[in-house]
Design brief:
The protein has a six-stranded parallel β-sheet, with helices on both faces. α8 links the parallel β3 and β4. The chain has about 260 residues and is an alpha/beta fold. It is built from eleven helices and eight strands.
Length: about 260
């Protein structure tokens, strides 16, 4: 029997041989595709933000009211110190006044109104407020306002600084912060969900509590870092974000949210 001639088979193998460089290029291409796919699937999806609601005193305007002096004038020195020691996040003066009998309430509100009138004479817009409003305008993001100050102060703010917020809810809207009702009212007016809104303010007890109770995002404006103190470590409601100036809010919003109106 004649030996098998395997040369054609060898010829075929030789012609099908693929250069090693091809495998390297192919492997690199597949690796790149897998990496890009993993990056695209692991990239976090930004939450949609359709509106921002601001506090006024100490947030949109420079704080000018001496609140400790006002609280002492309303409550008296001893009661002020007692309530302050039991309320690390701050004193809700309006809540305390509501528990009093009518004549005592009237006197207390007269004292508060006098402090507020003095504050109106020194009203100044907070640095970065106008620029932040301009940025929100450019993205068609709604702007609202909730304050425990009176409507007169809100009207003066709008008139003096040419910035508009709608709805703009003052102390005349009941119940007021930290109850979530005013923020939920704004969301209903805008026809948006609370989780599509951010509440920005300088108070843990009023602004952050109002926002968290409503189900909104919250941003605490803490210019001096006073809320870094250990006494605020165990408060019930903590902000989602904290900034030391309104200038920082612009980049915060762009980095963390889908700013679709």
């Amino acid at each position: 029997m004649a030996p098998l001639n395997l040369s054609p088979l060898k010829f075929q193998t030789d012609t099908l041989m693929i250069p090693p460089l091809f495998y390297r290029a192919l492997f690199k291409s597949i690796s790149t595709a897998i990496t890009m796919s993993l990056q695209s699937t692991s990239k976090p999806i930004k939450s949609r933000l359709r509106g921002v609601v601001f506090d006024m005193d100490g947030t949109l305007t420079v704080p000018v009211i001496d609140f400790p002096a006002m609280y002492k004038a309303v409550l008296g020195e001893d009661q002020y110190l007692s309530i302050k020691s039991a309320s690390p996040s701050g004193i809700d003066i309006l809540h305390h006044i509501e528990q009093w009998e009518p004549s005592k309430q009237q006197k207390a509100f007269e004292v508060i109104a006098d402090f507020e009138r003095q504050g109106l004479d020194r009203l100044q817009v907070m640095p970065g407020a106008a620029e932040l409003c301009g940025f929100l305008n450019s993205r068609n993001i709604r702007r609202g306002l909730i304050t425990r100050n009176v409507k007169l102060a809100v009207d003066l703010f709008h008139e003096r600084f040419g910035m508009s917020f709608s709805p703009a809810l003052s102390r005349e809207f009941r119940p007021y912060k930290p109850d979530p009702a005013p923020l939920l009212h704004i969301c209903s007016t805008w026809e948006v969900e609370p989780h599509e809104v951010m509440m920005i303010g300088d108070s843990l007890k009023d602004d952050v509590a109002c926002g968290k109770r409503a189900g909104a995002y919250t941003c605490l404006l803490d210019e001096t870092g006073r809320y870094d103190s250990p006494e605020y470590a165990n408060v019930e409601h903590k902000p989602d974000y904290k900034v030391s100036s309104l200038d920082q809010v612009h980049s915060l919003l762009e980095s963390n949210f889908d700013l679709t109106p």
